[in-house]
Amino acid sequence: MTPTPDRPPAAIKTPCIKVCVVDGESGLCMGCYRRLNEVAGWSKLSPEQRDEILAELPERRTLIRPEKLAMF
Fold this sequence. Notes:
Blueprint: H1 36-41, H2 47-61, H3 66-69
């Protein structure tokens, strides 16, 4: 849908929680569990691509050592 002057663009669903710290071991953001290229290109992905990544995030959390996640 093209934005019109009386209608703002639709919001994009995102897992971002404003904790932008990258885990050096896994390469994942410790706030949202996305890879840096996914964070950078999030707005350019299709809704279907974003949904695929969102579905993977709970499993990705297990790739970060629990003691690191305890800091947040």
